[in-house]
Inverse folding.
């Protein structure tokens, strides 16, 4: 599946902070604002201290939107559920390095099912642990909060990690999008994009704002302007 927007900057709304009783409406709002991906957070109460949605909800969302569905698995033993999430309609599936003893195999499993495979690092997990799988991954998601909840504060040390990965992909000649997730808002967005981030996940800053579509539009303007002055 060609996504067709690899290294462009994308605002990726996370529905974790949306009103689930009005989910279709909330999704339609950001879709109209021109986003191309929707971030779905799957939590199991084991890898992270919170529980969210499973494949049946993803299948319902699939019917409600044409946006690419970016499914972030914060669960132990993700290999047991990958097939079900792709079957439900996930276009991209990311797994945490911390949950995968056979990371390359798990990435291949996602790709074998026809989805794009992402690998995620918690803020405290060093980049060097990805050294031998960078070529196998379709994108890397760097957590900028400890996963589990929306509305947390961005951890600024992650900026250095984004810069380092940006340099690394350049050095290796890889078209590897960098996704950043957690605590992104209108104030820190430009710095995050300048550091090299491509796909910007935004939950509470979008869905807790008065007008989600206007916020997305504003964030897209900030992000686009920041790409012009990347380090
Ligand atoms: C956190 C999730 C995020 C979350 C981000 O564990 O992975 O995707 O929705 O929410 P904000 O943007 O509010 O930090
Ligand atoms: Zn997420």
């Amino acid at each position: 599946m060609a996504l067709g927007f690899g290294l462009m900057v994308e605002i990726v709304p996370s529905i974790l902070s949306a009103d689930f009783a009005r989910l279709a409406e909330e999704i339609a709002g950001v879709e109209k604002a021109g986003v191309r991906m929707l971030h779905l957070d799957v939590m199991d109460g084991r890898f992270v201290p919170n529980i969210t949605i499973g494949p049946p909800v993803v299948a319902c969302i699939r019917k409600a939107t044409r946006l690419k569905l970016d499914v972030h698995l914060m669960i132990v033993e993700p290999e047991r559920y990958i097939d079900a999430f792709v079957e439900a309609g996930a276009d991209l599936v990311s797994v945490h390095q911390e949950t995968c003893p056979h990371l390359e195999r798990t990435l291949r499993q996602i790709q074998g099912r026809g989805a794009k495979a992402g690998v995620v690092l918690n803020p405290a997990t060093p980049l060097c642990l990805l050294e031998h799988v960078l070529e196998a991954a379709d994108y890397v998601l760097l957590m900028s909060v400890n996963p589990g909840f929306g509305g947390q504060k961005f951890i600024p040390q992650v900026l250095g990690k984004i810069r380092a990965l940006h340099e690394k992909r350049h050095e290796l000649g890889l078209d590897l999008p960098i996704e950043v997730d957690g605590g992104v808002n209108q104030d820190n967005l430009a710095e995050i994009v300048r550091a090299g981030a491509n796909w910007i996940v935004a939950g509470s800053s979008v869905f807790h704002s008065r007008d989600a579509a206007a916020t997305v539009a504003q964030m897209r303007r900030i992000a686009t302007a920041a790409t012009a002055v990347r380090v």
Notes: The domain at 10-227 is CATH 3.20.20.70 (TIM Barrel). The helical segments are 23-32, 55-64, 82-88, 103-112, 158-172, 189-195, 204-207, 212-227. DSSP finds eight helices and eight strands in the chain. The beta strands are 10-13, 37-43, 68-74, 92-96, 116-121, 139-143, 178-181, 199-202.
